[in-house]
Fold this sequence. Notes:
This protein is α+β, with helices and mostly antiparallel strands. The protein contains five helices and eight strands. Helix content is 35%, strand content 27%.
Amino acid sequence: MNLETERLTITKYTRNDAAFIYKLMNSEGWLKNIGDRNIKTVQEAEAYLLKNYLPSYSQHGFGPYLVSLKDGTPIGSAGFYKRTDLNHPDVGFAFLPAFFSKGYAFEAANAVMKYASEELGIQKVLGFTLPNNKGSIKLLKKLGLSESGIYTYEDGEELVLFSN
């Protein structure tokens, strides 16, 4: 899977992306809006990739994808997650702070949504976010998802649930 948009390339993660995952998962936006995954070294990031991201491609046919500028600079992540307690995949996205408010998240998430629909035959997509994450709420709505209730995460945290 290789997607290309006007400004971005979107590819599957590999174990070679561990340094980027370390940086992304320890960025302020990730820690505030997604949560601390306790990734304190590049080696822990590699182990996380190998356990949580890479198997998703073969198990589900999709997963999170690396988003890079056309020059190869990694800037974020966009893709799909399959939660065991949900019947449909949910779209997720995260970007390094230097790349906020430039339209990259919509460009990438829109491309993976189109890929899911046209190439994978996935018609129903979910999304969820913290109630105070105005940027993600706006983006989920721009992607065509509507607020559809509350999703209670495994740790008891309540998130706003979206669906198309």
